[in-house]
Design goal:
The chain is mostly helical and 166 residues long. It has a single domain, classed as Up-down Bundle (Ferritin). The protein has 6 helices and no strands. The protein binds fe (iii) ion (2 copies) and magnesium ion. The site of one fe (iii) ion has 7 residues, from helix 3, helix 5 and helix 6. One fe (iii) ion binds next to helix 3, helix 5 and helix 6.
């Protein structure tokens, strides 16, 4: 923990740590959902979809790294038990049990939309009290916005391709 770094936070640090830990659980679950989705996905445009899912998996893992770093700076402890990820998550986990491209894309779009809402709330919470966390959250939010658009544009390409085939 950085003592002076924690002292300058002008908001309830325990509440902030809880919100950061919740987001941390989301990121691990998102990572796994993308990672496994990339392994099992089937159907048209599979190669392009796999490349995007793999990239997003690595980016979600990096979000977990960014959140852990901030949690530790603030004197907190990242959730140590994976079984607690389910208890603390905001956005949950959608198992890729139906591996068709469209379903996998739709599940992950839903996850990204939840992530965008979560980080938007965290930005509002930190905008006046903690500029350091604000900056971390803003970087993550920018990437979640990009993720949503990446997946929606793949879905659009899939629809165009299937129309053309008719
Ligand atoms: Fe993320
Ligand atoms: Fe994302
Ligand atoms: Mg991408």
């Amino acid at each position: 923990m950085g003592t002076k770094g924690r002292e300058i936070v002008m908001m309830d640090v325990d509440e902030l740590l809880e919100l950061l830990n919740r987001a941390y659980c989301d990121e691990w679950l998102a990572y796994y959902q993308y990672w496994l989705g990339a392994k099992v996905v089937k159907g048209p445009m599979k190669d392009a979809v796999i490349a995007e899912l793999d990239q997003h998996a690595m980016e979600e893992l990096n979000h977990a790294v960014m959140l852990t770093t901030r949690i530790i700076q603030l004197g907190g402890t990242p959730i140590t038990e994976p079984k607690d990820w389910y208890k603390w998550t905001n956005c949950g986990y959608d198992a890729p049990d139906n591996p068709v491209v469209r379903t996998i894309l739709e599940q992950n779009i839903k996850g990204e939309q939840c992530a965008i809402t979560t980080y938007q709330k965290l930005l509002q919470k930190t905008v006046t009290g903690d500029p350091v966390t604000y900056n971390v959250v803003l970087q993550i939010l920018e990437q979640e916005v990009e993720h949503e658009e990446d997946l929606q544009s793949l879905l659009e390409d899939l629809d165009l391709m299937l129309q053309k085939g008719n």
